[in-house]
Write a structure and sequence with these properties.
The structure holds 2 protein chains of 2 kinds.
Chain A: H1 2-33, H2 40-57, H3 62-85, H4 93-115, E1 130-132, E2 135-137, H5 139-161, H6 163-173, H7 175-180, H8 185-210, H9 217-231, H10 237-254, H11 263-277
Antiparallel strand pairs in A: 1-2
Helix pairs in contact in A: 1-5, 1-6, 1-8, 1-9, 1-10, 2-3, 2-4, 2-8, 2-9, 3-8, 5-6, 5-8, 6-8, 9-10, 9-11, 10-11
Chain B: H1 2-28, H2 36-51, H3 57-79, H4 84-104, H5 106-109, H6 130-154, H7 156-166, H8 168-173, H9 178-204, H10 214-227, H11 232-252, H12 261-282
Helix pairs in contact in B: 1-6, 1-9, 1-10, 1-11, 2-3, 2-4, 2-9, 3-9, 6-7, 10-11, 10-12, 11-12
The chains are: A mainly alpha, B mainly alpha.
Chain lengths: 285, 297
Amino acid sequence: MLLSLLQFFFNGLISGGILALPAIGFSLLYKILRFPNFAFGSYLTCGAYAALFVNETLGQPILLAFVAAMATTALIGVAVDQGAFRRLRRRRPLTLAIVSIGASFILENTVRFIWGGGLQHYRLPVYRDITLGGIHMGKEQITILGIASFFMVLVQALLQRTRLGKAMRALADNPQLAEIKGIDTERIILLTSGIGGALAGASGVFLGVDTVIDPLMGFNLILSVFAGAILGGIGSAKGAMAGALVIGLAEEISLIVLPSTYKSALGLGIIILILILRPSGFVRN
Amino acid sequence: MSAYLVAIGTFVGIYALLALGLNVQWGFTGLVNLGHVGFFAMGAYSTALLTVHGAPFALGLAAAIVMSACLGAFVAMTTLRLKEDFLTIVTLGFSEIFRLFLINEDWLTRGANGITGIPRPWRSFFSQGYELFYLCLISAVVLIVYLILERIRRSPYGRVLRAIREDDEIASVAGKNVFRFKVQAFTLGAAIAGLAGFLYAHYITYVSPDTFVPALTIYVWVALIAGGSGNNRGAILGAFVLMGFLEGARFVKDFIPFLTDVRLAAAREIIVGLALILLMFYKQEGLLPEERSKSLV
């Protein structure tokens, strides 16, 4: 029992790692633009398929595919922002949320148009699982956790130590003040959209490596991503990481008592509880 | 061909009801609801579960409306105090939780397989032409709902809803119990979606969780915004426009030979997504904008 609990804990850690990167991007953009971007799930999907193209069609190793996927979704993040959101900056959150769903329809179905609706896999070298103290760990899973942690540290460093990070935080904190102080708002939004897209794309590849690739993969994860970001307090990168980890762990551990189809309902349930009990989230900066 | 048109007409009627329901919530009162499909599903499943076990249609109808209304009231009371951006997430989330419930609780809902063999009302009276009869039935229901909603819209009650939409703080200062009005409007909209669910279930004779996905909610939004939110005639017109978008893609297939069914479905959704974005850019007031009431001053 204890052993299986540890196994669930390890799986939860992986899920949390996969959720954390898009949660950070989503959270920062939400704080700056003040609407939930529903297209984030489709950035994830696009990343997974971009990597599939490089890995399967072009026959390149998965690591190269991973980098290409991040570059592609960074561009998609910027393109969606410039093409769809920019014209609507001052409109109400509902309008932007609906437009982001429209963008997500377009992206997800472009993927479906090109690759069809079936399940796909990357071409990966096969490794034997490592068993450590009775817990099964895939080599891919450990790599995912490593790369995800690396990017979390990188984002944190970017936010804390660079001028760009400072400007991003200032804009999230108080857009009017930031603008008066001479911060180029549009430039920061552009860069944040790109970074958010890249992080979501990375996570799409993780998910494809850990499970399977299909056009709905991003949408199925989006509510858990939202839950992580909201749990951590919108606008806080550290909070989003912690929140995503908690959601990942809660979802995997819930499998002990709940059927697996309720997994994403758990994230939603947590969102609703948090919003009703504490609209500002649990982590304070 | 005429059978095809009758089927399309029936779907226009169902979308028109859904859009009319959303219009009460969003168009009249300014309430955010990205989970409309959940109330539609509640209506469809309520009547399906009762009537396959031999309950009379009247009971199915009452259950569809009452259960959706209750779900609507529950969602409204738990969430309406939240800010708009969070409401988009929470309402969409509610409809997804409800869909997962339909998939999981197969002791009640038969899970992912859905419910088959839902009876059709007055079927035995017709040896032929039943589909046409059903189209007339749906049109009559749309007309009745339209007339009731027009009455509400013109009444002092409708004016309060619009006042809440424009500025709920002023409405509150004017002594209106804003929260109660909001809950009532949301409940009414959900009940109309439940009625649409009833008509859908008995037309298709089969319901399954696959039907009730968030994309359907977005279709209804497209219809309402295209037609003109705040305007009941706009909501109905929007249902026609939506079906034009959805079915138009079908005819493209005849011209492009390589289009498989999966690709066709994908192209359809891409068109809907584009239409949604372009509507928000260029025509947010819709084809039939709301008539602004003449100022008294």
